[in-house]
User: Fold these one by one.
Assistant:
Number 1:
Amino acid sequence: MLVYYTGFDRIEEAIAAEKKLKDRARKHKEKLIDAFNPVWRDLWDDIQP
């Protein structure tokens, strides 16, 4: 289930953000999701062309 995503213009930015996020605690990641998608709805269909 996709509950959070972020877009980037350059792959290097995406990789750096992913590495930074991997080092964060689960609680921090849950706060990001809550701010972006408070009901934790599956966003997969939203990003499909």
Note: Residues 11-47 form one domain.
Number 2:
Amino acid sequence: MKKRWISLFVENDIGVLARISGLFSGKSYNLNSLTVGTTEDTTISRMTISLTSDDKTFEQIKKQLNRSVEVIKVVDFMDTAIHMKELMFVKIHGCSEHDMMKLSYMKEIFQAKMIDYAPSMALLESVQTEAGNNDLLKLLESDFSGRIEVVRGGSVAIEAISFSER
């Protein structure tokens, strides 16, 4: 079982997202994340899907997606250099002055932003790889256990121009 990413170019029509996600649930495939948005062509949307599967199942998924009428193109990111980021918001409750100083250091180290705050609360925004956000979250959970609220968006990805990224 490996973590895998694919990108789909699909028709930007009502119900397409439901049909694509229904294809996964109908076959009992579990998605780790799914993001979708319009492209430079407003008639086409791009989906970035993350899932965990074995090689055989992943090939079946790609074949089923290619057969779907609404799917224009399937891009397998497994052997492609890509740029990928995930958006994460973390709200930290019950902060002391010392906690705010610790958060200030953490946000610098992890290149996060403090986008909102109150005397006893802070809201961080992190746009990192999934692994980078996991690392930040692990540190925040260890220092602020029981006082955090997390919202994560799925990853978005695009093929790299050079071969040095992954």
Note: Residues 83-159 form a domain with the Alpha-Beta Plaits fold (CATH 3.30.70.1150).
Number 3:
Amino acid sequence: MSTLSVPLSPDLEKFIDNQVKIGRASNKAEVVRRALITFAEDEAVFAVLEAEREVKEGKILRGDLRQLAKKIAVNRLVS
């Protein structure tokens, strides 16, 4: 597992601290990891919705649905 140093605005730092304080996460790293997992899941959902829109518009579906399914499965394993 690697470590990443990211500058945060004071508001984001307060949000992270508050999530730990109220018990939503055990530490700051967990808050950030959960946020990144949620972001990755949102991106996967967006890709599916975009493909659905293209199909409705009569466009040819592009992309590898197996890779998308793997991406969703990996995100669920990480969380």
Note: DSSP finds three helices and no strands in the chain.
